[in-house]
Amino acid sequence: MFNEAKFACMILCSLGLAACGGGILSSAPSHLAFVSLTSNNTIAAYRIDNNTGAFTAITGSPYFAGNSPTSLLLHPSGKYLYAANQLGNSISLFTVDSNSGSITEVLPETPAGVSPVSMAMNASGSLLFVANAFSNNISVYSINSANGALSQIAGSPFSTYQEPGALALTPSGNLLYTMNTDLSSIIGFAVSSSGALRPLPPLTLPQIQAPFAVAMDPAGKYLYVTNAADNALSIFSINSSTGALTAVPQTPIATGTSPVAVAVQPNGQYVYVANNSSNNVSIYSIDSTTGVPTQITGSPFSVTSGPLFLQWDPNGQWLYVGGQSTKTIAEYSFSANGTLTAASQSITTAQTPTSMAVGR
Fold first, then answer.
1. For 102-152, how does the pLDDT look when each residue is reduced to its tens digit (9 = 90+)?
2. What's the CATH number where 95 sits?
3. What is the dihedral of CA 55, 18, 218, 46, to 10 degrees?
4. Which residue segment(s) compose the domain that 13 sits in?
5. pTM value surpassing 0.85
6. What is the per-residue pLDDT across 49-72, written as a single tens digit (0 to 9) for each?
7. Count of structural domains, the chain
8. Of 139, 230, 303, 341, which one has the fewest beta carbons inside 10 Å?
């Protein structure tokens, strides 16, 4: 299956901040969730009960989007949804009706580079970063808080090495990292207040094979990277001043087969890796002082077939797993010791789900 997964998983979100669910508790009875269905150019919308985890499809869903919407991000305000259209070479903006949950596209689409595959947004929602795989650059846009409109900043797009993939932005917004699977490298940038990117000195890293998916802990101390070619998870501590990365002792650590997604539990205590070909999720507890991971008892846990992405709900109570083979969003409840239990609220989607964005 993994011979198909390179394309499928390049299109996943940044699994960076979006993947960790934000770590902010919600007092609302429910939250909205949006799922990209890339193969038929649509976005499905749901309201999810915060207590039971039950999904309710929004009236009018799924909604037409651009050509091959492959990565979704929801603005921190909850008012705007962005979709990277991989074959359309554009970014779509949708306004979100918080009452009904419906979305409305605002045309025209914003031009991007060639094959936008992943996105990252700063905590304030003022800047959007987009990795363009086949034009070998990163586009940076300022976001109009009044209407969500995107404007490319001066100097954008910023050149990088060939085929940039998943993006991770520090919580402070001062450092950006992109995974380069073909070159087996991680490329870093310093980010100015305007969003301009300045390449960091080449990062001196131990040998990593095909870095693929990436996530960052809520404090911005550690970068978690899956190594698709050797079935492992690498963890790096981040120098907040220079952006330098240092391998955490006892890493890389073994995962299942074809690790294609990684997510950090909102409190930063556990890290989850989706293994596409072995149909399971590896779970590690993280030492808060050293960053050293320990695989928990019972890991890896079997999940829906062909897991493609991981997404936490806003309260850290549920973990959503996108199933490639089953065309499902499978829901798992989280226990205090990090274990997962299959919930009864999983849903089937019309096409293979490729990314997911959730509101608070």
1. 999 999 999 999 999 999 999 999 999 999 999 999 999 999 999 999 999
2. 2.130.10.10
3. -10
4. 2-358
5. yes
6. 998 999 999 999 999 999 999 999
7. 1
8. 341
Structure tokens at 303: 């999940």
